[in-house]
């Protein structure tokens, strides 16, 4: 059994597709397939059900996935420990950010980091916050900027960037236009334009509505703040964003603070409680970029 076989196995399991896994590990699909077959032969059990386009784990594959990840993590830890002593950083640092959200300080931190640690390859991707938190805990993502309702879970290390109430974006002519603050009960029956499930803004909205006894009436879900503002300006519904995000659109929409919710919308940096040297070196760059 070879470490590269375990790496390919984990890649196929996480991508649920041999072609995407091959692109991820930078070898041909036939090469990945051959190594997986060799691993299955050694273990005496098929690891994947290949009867459909989706590569689904068999019972044996599910049992093997955790130990395979642990073996790869242990190998990486050995390499990191040696590099840490030698003062050398290399390898890959995977970074996640909220879908549809441009976070300029993150890019500034990447620029500063690359100047000092050119041997580290940075891989950036977008996803929803809930998924990225899960990836941090499993080790498939090193660090992410996520939105949460309230503080991030204690299972990860975190640095809060913004903690603030939600605000409603109201089009001209609406009864709430010009108001400074309303309670969540005012939203009963109002069509809303909101971020999708898995985002901090959406979770905070649902908590705020639930505490006064109703479920929000969702007209449209959109993952980008610009899209929410545009739809709101067209009269599709009341937009809901964090207060600082909403204030980017005061030139064409009224911004009305939503009061009474004890749970703020939080934007935070999260990383594993057992970070690699590359992560430990990156966090101060982020803190400087966000002036924390």
Structure, described:
By secondary structure, this protein is an alpha/beta fold. The chain folds into three domains: 1-86, Orthogonal Bundle (Arc Repressor Mutant, subunit A); 89-144 and 273-292, 3-Layer(aba) Sandwich (D-Maltodextrin-Binding Protein, domain 2), CATH 3.40.190.10; 166-263, Periplasmic binding protein-like II (D-Maltodextrin-Binding Protein, domain 2), CATH 3.40.190. 42% of the residues lie in helices and 24% in strands. It contains ten helices and 13 strands. The chain has helices at residues 3-15, 18-25, 29-43, 59-86, 104-116, 129-138, 200-210, 225-233, 243-246, 277-289; strands at 48-49, 56-57, 91-98, 120-127, 143-149, 157-164, 166-170, 181-183, 191-194, 217-221, 238-242, 254-259, 265-271. The strands form three sheets. The chain has a six-stranded mixed sheet with strand order 8-12-7-11-9-10. The chain has a five-stranded mixed sheet with strand order 4-3-5-13-6. A two-stranded antiparallel sheet has the order 1-2. α5 (104-116) links the parallel β3 (91-98) and β4 (120-127). α1 crosses α3 (29-43), α1 crosses α4 and α2 (18-25) packs across α3 (29-43). The longest helix has 28 residues, at 59-86. The chain is elongated. The N and C termini lie far apart (46 Å). The model has no long low-confidence stretch (mean pLDDT 90).
């Amino acid at each position: 059994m070879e470490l590269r076989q375990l790496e390919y196995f984990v890649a196929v399991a996480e991508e649920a597709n041999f072609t995407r896994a091959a692109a991820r590990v930078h070898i041909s699909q036939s090469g990945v397939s051959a190594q997986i077959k060799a691993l299955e032969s050694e273990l005496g059990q098929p690891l994947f059900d290949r009867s459909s386009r989706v590569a689904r784990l068999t019972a044996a594959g599910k049992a093997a996935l955790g130990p395979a990840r642990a073996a790869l993590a242990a190998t990486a830890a050995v390499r990191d420990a040696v590099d840490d002593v030698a003062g050398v950083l290399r390898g890959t640092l995977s970074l996640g950010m909220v879908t549809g959200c441009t976070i300029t300080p993150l890019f500034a931190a990447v620029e500063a980091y690359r100047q000092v640690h050119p041997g580290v390859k940075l891989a950036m991707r977008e996803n929803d916050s809930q998924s990225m938190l899960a990836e941090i805990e499993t080790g498939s993502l090193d660090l992410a900027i996520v939105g949460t309702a309230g503080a991030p879970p204690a299972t990860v290390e975190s640095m809060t960037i913004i903690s603030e109430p939600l605000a409603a974006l109201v089009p001209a002519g609406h009864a709430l236009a010009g108001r400074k603050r309303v309670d969540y009960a005012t939203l009963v029956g109002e069509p809303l334009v909101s971020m999708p499930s898995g985002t901090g803004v959406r979770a905070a909205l649902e908590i705020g509505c639930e505490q006064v006894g109703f479920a929000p009436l969702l007209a449209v879900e959109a993952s980008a703040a610009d899209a929410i503002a545009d739809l709101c300006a067209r009269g599709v519904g009341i937009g809901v964003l964090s207060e600082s995000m909403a204030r980017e659109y005061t030139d064409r929409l009224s911004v009305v603070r939503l009061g009474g919710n004890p749970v703020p919308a939080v934007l935070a940096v999260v990383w594993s409680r057992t970070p690699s040297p590359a992560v430990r070196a990156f966090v101060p760059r982020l803190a400087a970029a966000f002036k924390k």
